[in-house]
Specification:
With 79 residues, the protein is an alpha+beta fold. It is built from 4 helices and 2 strands. The chain has a two-stranded antiparallel sheet. Helix 2 packs across helix 4. The mean pLDDT is 90.
């Protein structure tokens, strides 16, 4: 994940590919990565999503994988 993304202030939203992946499961995502993709809603920050991964994985690595695959996009959060 790029160093410029602040997990506390950056929100994440599904792309069209991410929406399609939820339906098709064509990318073969691990259960943890897929669960995180399902939880991405355009409202939660990376820090808020990390609560769901406590003890299960590294949120930065999971989000980086989803970003690299084009399943999610980073968004500036409005106040």
């Amino acid at each position: 994940m790029p160093d410029t993304i602040d997990l506390n202030t950056t929100g994440f939203a599904k792309t069209a590919l991410g929406q399609q992946e939820i339906q098709d499961r064509s990318l073969g995502l691990s259960p943890l990565v897929r669960r995180t993709l399902v939880l991405v809603d355009g409202k939660r920050s990376g820090a808020e999503l990390s609560v769901f991964l406590v003890g299960k994985g590294d949120i930065e690595a999971v989000l980086a994988q989803l970003l690299d695959l084009g399943c999610i996009e980073a968004q500036a959060r409005s106040s």
